[in-house]
Amino acid sequence: MLQLLLVVCILNMRVQSDIVSVDYSGPDGCSFSVVIGEPDFYEYGEYWYPVIHGMGLSHAEGEYVTPVRTYFIPVPPGCEPVITCTPVDFQRVELPGPFLVTPVPTGSGLDTEWIIPAITPAGRRGDYAELETMHMAGTTVAAVTVTPFATGNNSRIPSEMNIRLEWPSRSGSREIGNPLLSALCLPSLVYWPGSTERASSPFWGLPWVRIAISSTGFYSVTGDELAQAGCDVTGAPSSSIRMFGGSGTQFDLMDPGEEHSLSEIAIEVNDGGDGIFDQSDNIRFFAQDLNRFAFSEGVSERLYHRYATHNVYWLTWGGEDGLRMDTLDATPDGSPAWGDSLLHSLWQEQDYIWVGGYEDSTGWVWSMLYENIPGYFYFSSSSVDGDSRLDISLISSSSCDHDILFELNGDLIADTSFNGRVEQIFTFEGLTFDLSMNLLKVTALNDPGTVYFNYFQADYPRRLSYAAGRLLRFTDIVQGKYSFSMGGAEDSYSLLDVSDPFAVRRLKGSTAGGLLNVSLEVEPESELWLTGTDSYLSPDSLLPAEPGRIIG
Q: How far is 529 from 509, CA to CA, in rounded Å?
């Protein structure tokens, strides 16, 4: 595979070497020239796109299909190179017909079609050459992307460009000897070797388990389950069992240097008091789904992951002592009573149809709304205790007016419309949810298959008479100490403070009449979880692995 990659890269260099020449390469910078040949035009349906010798094509969503080329130049580690691009001369360009906008896929499976958006991009309005630094092949490189059509003037492009990178002079450079780096970079350049120090890992030299979960909640794993998965934890000192996790968020695709570090998680290890982890013992921990709500200063935000379905946690043993959950006293002290309910958020979303050019979060939507044929969406709102709210997301792939009917449990809640190729979020407040099951009915009137149902969020006060197995949050509150009575608790230690998911704490209350009673300080960022006798979750998978290889 590596040899094939090298062959491809070397062939690529032959194509570009006749349009680019290096003028200078030294300790303080590099300069090179790029010759922009006369474009040839190719037809795609009734649209046209230009092709320039030695360049590839850019297919950015919402933009024209245009020639582009990226060149890699080694730079000293830690420097911030400055780029200067000077066009030498210009040439006229005459497009034979309409400029092709990057097609986008719609539909799913065999029904997928490539649609050309009926939009007129504003144009990049950027520079002819853009710079980004990254780590590659053991060193730091500057990726210089050359785009002749960058300024938005599609009738006039450069014939040649002189590009210079400058940085503070740095010694220690050497000729490129790495075949891969030599194939990727411009010829006759020097590079600065990266540091040979490797990042440390808490897992090196230790066994470990990869634990995958897909729902937020409190998990329990037994020694027997670990043994059946091929993870030989039994017989280890219980104190040495440790768990680690990351942020559970998607990497920023526009920031190749972004890092998500591991942090240790406080867990519970129940070993019967003998200090040795056996097959009948268990490990309990709080874990978060990738797609979840995040709360900051009383405001909720929905987090997505476009490319993964499971959050991953790492378990190891046999080394240092691990973190354990603390227990805090929260017995009732006469603080003001909170009340009978807490705001609960229900998120319903299914990924059935790919519309990547229109849906920005995941690329998927739930359903197409066919013309004058209602779409039916059911949801439960058990223990609802007051007025409720719905947020509904619709997406359209056409620029016309879209007339929509919304009905809830047989009652019309809106006869409305929206315009354009956009995502439109409709908010309805003061609704009455059924105590058991609700039916949301959505109809697109006189709109032939261009409106999609994306997701909906239901917010409603939910009684605390049974509060086990769900996230308890406190948005829109006045910070203070309150007394709570909650149903469904396993025992007086069942309430968890999960405001910091890496440092979960148990809260000790008192039980009476089937209710857990506690007094505690809460604020808008507070999050609690109540465990019941049947509310422990099991991971989707347990696998032995070697995470020390991931770092460094």
A: 14
